[in-house]
Amino acid sequence: MAFTRSSFTKEYYAPREVAVYVGVSSRTIMRYCREGYIKEERTPTDRRRIPREAVLDYLEQKGLLIDDNEIRRDVIYARVSTIAQANRGDLDRQVQDVLMYAAMRDPKNLEVIKEIGSGLNDNRKQLCKLLNAVMNREINRIFINYKDRLTRFGYNYLELICSYAGTEIVIVSNETEAKSVQEELAEDLIAIIHSFSGKLYGLRRKDRKKIQEDIEAINESE
């Protein structure tokens, strides 16, 4: 894993924080400080604090620090819920709309990610791939047509993760195509009802099985 200078915004870091970046234990970082490999300072309560520049210097020595623009790239993420929507061109039109917007904002190493899947599904393959790249600090900006392209629920959590990794989410439009939204909402509601119905049926089946087992136990004891 590599890091960019802009990823480090704090003036001082605790040894445990540096340990996470380097991939070693906190004790190892404290030993490096004692041996002079990493410059440290002490708080009035005698706690170790490592200055930002010292962290950057050490990461650079280890080959873990790169220029901000070296690997970071911009991504267009486009999603529709069904194959039918993709077949009629909704997905491609969404990409083109976002692409025209991104083209005017000096994109770097632009990548297009397209996905077919419900906005309720938080385990979408391409979304997970994108979030892994975000957490590896490889993504500069994510361009989306509107919020629910990323997720139907929990957008604020994704935004928080991206913000922590220095990734900006750029929403192209706050307006949506009414027809597509109505279709997707209907499909999502059906999916929710189906999911809960299945769970409820499963619980009832377990209850019926338990009652039958109790009856059989009573009969056997008579």
Describe the model:
This protein has 222 residues and is of the alpha/beta class. The protein folds into 2 domains: 64 residues, Multidrug-efflux Transporter Regulator, Chain: A, Domain 2 (Orthogonal Bundle), CATH 1.10.1660; 103 residues, Rossmann fold. Helix content is 52%, strand content 16%. Helix 1 packs across helix 2.
How many β-strand runs?
9
Number of domains: 2
Helix content percent band: 40-55%
Number of helices: 9
CATH superfamily of the largest domain: Resolvase, N-terminal catalytic domain
Summarize the helix and strand pattern as letters.
EEHHEEHEHEHHEHEHEH
CATH class of the largest domain: Alpha Beta
In round numbers, the mean pLDDT is 82
Q: Outline, from the CA principal axes?
A: flat
Please tell me how large the radius of gyration is: 25 Å
End-to-end Cα distance: 69 Å
CATH topology of the largest domain: Rossmann fold
Beta-strand percent range = 15-25%
Q: In the CATH hierarchy, what is the architecture of the largest domain at level 2?
A: 3-Layer(aba) Sandwich
Question: How is the main sheet built?
Answer: 4 strands, parallel
Uncertain residue ranges: none
Structural class estimated from helices and strands: alpha/beta
Order of the strands making up the biggest sheet: 7-6-8-9
